[in-house]
Structure formats: structure tokens, C-alpha cells
Amino acid sequence: MIFMQDISEGKNDIYMFTGIVEETGTVEGLRRNGVSFSMSIKAKKIMDDVKVGDSIAVNGICLTATDVHPDGFTVDVMPETVRRTSLENLRAGDRVNLERALRPDTRLGGHIVSGHIDGTGTIRDIKNEENATWITISASESILKYIVEKGSVAIDGISLTVAYVDSECFKVSVIPHTKNETTILEKKKGDTVNLENDIIGKYVEKLLRPSGSDGKSKTGSGLTMDKLGEYGFLG
Question: What is the pTM of this model?
Fold first, then answer.
């Protein structure tokens, strides 16, 4: 099991998420201060043990509860988070996906999710197929390079399986339970969604391309894709 450390606000808490949405909350209000803002969210199910300082995934974004009351909580959103996510599009009355940080004694029902968004994608198409709904999302090459067919991706904090991917987009097929328990089908063509890639792929890339303190690639370690294939790691 992998845990991630929140350093964005000087916290030392170790946490992770699974992409299994616990409930949908409602944005009650936003108080803007330039690019940054504070946001109050009405919630019910998750409030039974939330405290000030707890990490909560809001549409897949790990945010810290700065105020807590019986029927909701408040979070602060800094400029870097606004730049990298779709939070700036939220308005009072919008529903959001919510998940508390995973406890060590909880089943990992989805996949390893850090709550650190890699970027955003745009919904290109939505089509129904019997009891499922296909959603096509276009994204940048920097996002798509980590997405693999039958791998996992978090879309607005929802753990989903990739059913198709090419150089411009990827597709997921959503079951009725996910439709009912999340906001995924409240989206329409052209809407922006938050995307977090499977963190394991990013670590593998980092290990395959060692970097110096300046962040630039230096001489390799001798580990190559051919070498991994030779020893059966690529299937």
C-alpha cells in the first residue's frame, strides 16, 4: 500500500484515496480573493468523523477542511490548484464528488489515488450502450502518455477503467451504480474534468529516466524497456 504526503500547505499528514466516491456534496458558496477562494460544501455521510485539518477529495482534488460544522465543511483553494484543475468553473448549487482519506483498515476498492491532479480533459462525446454509458475524453499528450487500456484513471475523483486510448483521447464505460452515486453524467459535451493518472506509471517513468538535482535526465541506469521485456515484466 502506498501513502502520499501533503506538502502543499505545510502538512505532514500521510494519506491516500481510492477513487470510490462516498457521497456527492453541494457547493453552498464561494468567497473569492483574486484567483484563490474559500469554498463551503454541504455534505452529510462523510461528516460523522471529519475534523478541521482533515484531507477530503473534492472532485478528485485533495483539499484541507479549514472549518467543520454538522452539515458541511469549508476548504481554501490556492492559485496553483485553480490553475491545474476545473475548480474555477464551480458555482453555488453545483454538486461535487467527495471522499475522505483512506484509513489503513479499509479495503482498497478502487486504485491508488493521491488527490494531486495531473491536469484536465474535455468531454468529447457521451453515448449510451444498453446499461452502460461511454464517455470519450480528450486530453494533452502529457496526460495520455500515462493512460493504458484496461488501466486505471481518476476522473473528477472517480476510479474508472480505461476501455480505449489513442493519441488524442481515451474512453471509459460507466456502469449504472457509478452514474447514480457520482456527478459523472451531470457533465455534458465540452465540459472540463479533473484527471489523475495512475501514480505507479509516473514512478516507473522516473526510475527509467534518472534525474539529477537540476531535474534534467542524466545517464541511465541500464534499465530499458527491452530489458524489462526480456525478463517478462511487460506481459
Answer: 0.83
